[in-house]
């Protein structure tokens, strides 16, 4: 098996089939075994005192965890990776690694809502203040920087409203002011956006989504560049926020088909988005690959593809009761808050009540769709029937 540096020279689909496993160390078996354990035993007192072991205790990790960490590090062209038990946990780890009491952070107004709650409650409790910024601010974000600003946190595109940020401009501002950058890269994955290559310090992935791919895994990943890796690892070790062995096994298994599934999600998402755009009940499609999506030019500049999650704005004549009648009787699309799995999902959403830096005025009721792996014609028929129920 090639080492990480050799694998970086290969195409991503080849990398994903080879990373995180070594049959020569696994009695010839293709996949790495699952290590479950807490206690590590030592051969003598000197080894015990010096902690002479790859893993001093279960909270230091296991070979199963290390296989996934190393695989993700190579895929992201990072200096190191840590793994949490959820995407929100991974974002929290990234913020704990880069802030202290008295600091100020800038967070995109389009951020994943549970992280907004985390910032407004727990971080605030420990003396870290948050200002939310317009996701389309670009270089103008500089006007929001305060003397104690330590972090800018991006999510691009926003996972409901889908604004695509000018990541390069924001990173340039951050570097001029010696501010750390964190990006939630779950929508694009490292397959369609290489965060560290553009200067992002910490890149977060909700592995629950496209890495797991089967709606049976909760996991978050944080990869770091060389300057931020020591602090991230130290924070992780201090908190012992480890994933489970079986979860790591599922993530490694998901890694093998991730490229195929993400590319299929891209094709299906685009087909469904174009189809929905042509429906008279839909006034607008919020898909980064569409010119009408806020920040579309940024998507063209920084991203190499798109995935299967996007939103639509319904015609202004429809109200909540119309949408309820549509969604309550879907045959294939289910209502659920996740995405990236094999099943198609649809949810209504409204950013009005929690946006603070920007006004959410889409002009109609909004729905977010996750396009799964069902037959595309069946999905269109299900949506067509649902749209008819709006009347």
TrEMBL record:
It is an enzyme of class 4 (lyase). It catalyses: L,L-cystathionine + H2O = L-homocysteine + pyruvate + NH4(+); an S-substituted L-cysteine + H2O = a thiol + pyruvate + NH4(+). InterPro entries: Cys/Met-Metab_PyrdxlP-dep_enz (IPR000277), Cys_b_lyase_bac (IPR006233), Cys_met_metab_PP (IPR054542), PyrdxlP-dep_Trfase (IPR015424), PyrdxlP-dep_Trfase_major (IPR015421), PyrdxlP-dep_Trfase_small (IPR015422). Pathway: Amino-acid biosynthesis; L-methionine biosynthesis via de novo pathway; L-homocysteine from L-cystathionine: step 1/1. GO terms for molecular function: cysteine-S-conjugate beta-lyase activity; pyridoxal phosphate binding. Coiled coil: none annotated. Its EC number is 4.4.1.8. Its cofactor is pyridoxal 5'-phosphate. The modification N6-(pyridoxal phosphate)lysine is found at residue 209. The keyword Lyase applies. PROSITE patterns: CYS_MET_METAB_PP. GO terms for biological process: L-cysteine catabolic process to pyruvate; transsulfuration. Pfam families: Cys_Met_Meta_PP. Keywords: Lyase, Pyridoxal phosphate. Belongs to the trans-sulfuration enzymes family. This is Cystathionine beta-lyase MetC.
